UniProtKB/TrEMBL annotation:
InterPro entries in UniProt: HD/PDEase_dom, HD_domain, NT_sf, PolA_pol_head_dom, PolyA_RNA-bd, tRNA_CCA-adding_enzyme
Family assignment from sequence similarity: Belongs to the tRNA nucleotidyltransferase/poly(A) polymerase family.
Keywords: ATP-binding, Magnesium, Metal-binding, Nucleotide-binding, Nucleotidyltransferase, RNA repair, RNA-binding, Transferase, tRNA processing
UniProt-listed Gene3D superfamilies: 1.10.246.80, Beta Polymerase, domain 2, cca-adding enzyme, domain 2
Keyword Heme: no
Cofactor requirement: Mg(2+)
Domain HD/PDEase per the UniProt entry, residue ranges: 254-378
Organism lineage: Bacteria, Pseudomonadati, Bacteroidota, Cytophagia, Cytophagales
Name this protein carries in UniProt: HD domain-containing protein
Superkingdom of origin: Bacteria
Length: 482
């Protein structure tokens, strides 16, 4: 199989091959770019291997361009990187690796192309294309990677137990590639996953979450999570999600399996958005159900308060898994806390007050919250699902009406604490907070309109009831005008 015609579409490959020839070293295109070329998948990351110094090759390639090309050299790793427009080129010398049991850091030595390919994770990534004049464009495929692509199979080039024990992160990568490409995992390779799952403990949480997020970002992440669960990999870093699995029964009353329900919600969300953090909200929305599960003989299984407890659990889970602890975590936490609220509104009669409160609490995230709630309807009863979705349509229309009328989303009370203190000569105190809270509640209840005039009038009424007077005539004049 020869890819010369494909390589000729981009002069990068000719330049790299020519640079290798000038240095007298054999040069090859390797790894993921070769795989994606065969799969007709777009890729902007290109890896080159040479039997010699990868740094010297990168420097020679950089000199071959007329304009300055940014070159980054990593001497400790024997690698170099070139940035060329929207392409990222990485260069490394062919090498062989050996590992110590207690670490994933390999002992690296110079090696042949064959040794370089056999150390790679999977057969589909263990292919090379020659950039040398005598066989330019020729595919080198010692482990039948092309065959495994045709068979849609993830398989290690060497004995899988050795591959995963040497570098346990490859177990996460196996699941990630299976998820991204919708491939199966070879039976022996999958067995090795289950046997070596505890080895994942030597991998940092930062490395694991990179692979996990790539699974979450696939079109149907449930496939990857099922593989993680079945292989016991999930148990090593996300025990809270594992605990969702299973069904308890008492007196013929059972609850649904919340693990598979969560995966269905996640897949449903993925049909609506590519946003990673809304997908994480789907993963986390029922995370506290095991902790709140109770059996009531009259009503069956309950999970009262799981939304609040789940919101409280979110920061600790994010921190342990090295997910961001910034506004993205708070966004997920908010959606977890609020995910039951819209469901409670899908009734024939819903008050404007309830809608105002939901708009106030959700703010700009109300649309994402409604997506999550729609995704949360996973009943096998199609009529029930349709009825809920139609009710959500009605709720969204009412939300739009209330928002258009009252501008509640993200509103701040029209009278600030500073203004209250200034008018009544107060220092920061509980009474200032009470006045602000009463004004907010009056707006949310629809007792007054959401504007400064109505709010200030109510402020003076509240102050009068509490025996508080303005500090000057100007404020009294303002009160009388109001």
């Amino acid at each position: 199989m020869n890819f010369k015609s494909k390589l000729d579409e981009n002069d990068i490959f000719e330049k790299v091959g020519a640079a290798g020839a000038r240095l007298g070293i054999k040069t090859y295109l390797v790894g993921g770019f070769v795989r994606d070329l065969i799969l007709n998948r777009p890729s902007k990351d290109i890896d080159f291997t040479c039997v010699g110094s990868g740094i010297s090759l990168a420097q020679e390639v950089a000199r071959s361009f007329d304009s300055h090309v940014p070159l980054s050299v990593f001497k400790n790793f024997g690698t170099a990187m070139l940035k060329l427009e929207d392409w990222e080129l990485e260069f490394v010398g062919a090498r062989k690796e050996s590992y110590r049991l207690e670490s994933r850091k390999p002992i690296v030595e110079d090696g042949t192309l064959e040794e370089d390919l056999e150390r790679r994770d999977f057969t589909i990534n263990a292919m090379a294309i020659s950039l040398n004049p005598e066989n330019y464009g020729e595919l080198i495929d010692p482990f039948d990677g092309v065959g495994d692509i045709k068979r849609k199979l993830i398989k290690t080039p060497l004995e899988p137990g050795i591959t995963f024990s040497d570098d346990p992160l490859r177990m996460m990568r196996a699941v990630r590639f299976a998820s991204q490409l919708t491939f199966d995992i070879d039976a022996d390779t999958f067995f090795a996953l289950t046997e070596n799952a505890p080895r994942l403990q030597i991998i940092s949480a930062e490395r694991i979450i990179v692979e996990l997020n790539k699974i979450v970002e696939t079109p149907k992440p449930s496939y990857g999570f099922k593989l993680l669960f079945a292989s016991k990999l999930l148990h090593e870093f996300f025990p809270e999600m594992v605990e969702l699995q299973g069904v308890d029964s008492v007196d013929d009353k059972s609850h649904k399996d919340n693990f598979y329900h969560t995966l269905q919600v996640l897949d449903n969300v993925c049909t609506m958005t590519e946003d990673l953090w809304l997908r994480w909200a789907a993963i986390m929305h029922d995370i506290a159900k095991p902790a709140t599960k109770r059996f009531n003989p009259k009503v069956g299984w309950t999970f009262h308060g799981h939304e609040d407890k789940g919101a409280r659990m979110t920061p600790s889970i994010f921190r342990r898994m090295k997910l961001p602890m910034d506004e993205r975590m708070k966004y997920v936490q908010k959606l977890v806390r609020l995910h039951l609220r819209p469901i409670a509104l899908v009734k024939e009669e819903v008050t404007d007050s309830a809608l105002r409160r939901l708009l106030f609490d959700a703010g700009d995230d109300i649309d994402d919250l409604m997506k999550l709630c729609r995704a949360d309807i996973t009943s096998k009863n199609n009529k029930k699902v349709l009825r809920y979705l139609e009710n959500f349509d009605k709720v969204e229309e009412k939300l739009k009406e209330v928002e258009g009328k009252d501008q509640i989303r993200n509103f701040q009370p029209p009278v600030s604490g500073e203004e209250i203190m200034d008018i009544f000569g107060l220092s920061p105190s509980k009474i200032v907070g009470e006045i602000k809270e009463e004004i907010k509640e009056a707006i949310l209840e629809g007792k007054i309109q959401n504007n400064p005039e109505a709010a200030r009038k109510l402020m003076f009424d509240i102050a009068r009831e509490k025996g508080i007077a303005p500090v000057d005539n100007k404020s009294n004049h303002q009160e009388n005008n109001d």
